[in-house]
Automatic annotation (TrEMBL):
<keyword id="KW-0067">ATP-binding</keyword>
<keyword id="KW-0813">Transport</keyword>
<dbReference type="GO" id="GO:0005524">
    <property type="term" value="F:ATP binding"/>
</dbReference>
<keyword id="KW-1278">Translocase</keyword>
<dbReference type="InterPro" id="IPR027417">
    <property type="entry name" value="P-loop_NTPase"/>
</dbReference>
<keyword id="KW-0547">Nucleotide-binding</keyword>
<protein>
    <submittedName>
        <fullName>Putative siderophore transport system ATP-binding protein YusV</fullName>
    </submittedName>
</protein>
């Protein structure tokens, strides 16, 4: 359980070191909007909206 009960969470690698099944479970249980920096594209593709950023290219939205 997260300590704060804010409507929006800003997270950096919130599910690092978890397998995909547990990552999805944790993200589903929050019940809140989350803005997360992720390196795991499998988890990112489960999101409602993704913004992909690289060092070379400008951000691109992926639906």
């Amino acid at each position: 359980m997260l300590a704060q009960s804010t409507p929006v969470l800003v997270l950096d690698e919130p599910t690092n070191h978890l397998d995909l099944r547990h990552q999805l479970r944790l993200m589903a249980e929050t019940g809140r909007t989350a803005v997360a920096a992720l390196h795991d594209l499998n988890l990112a593709m489960e999101a409602d909206q993704v913004v992909l950023m690289t060092e070379v290219l400008a951000p691109a939205e992926v639906e």
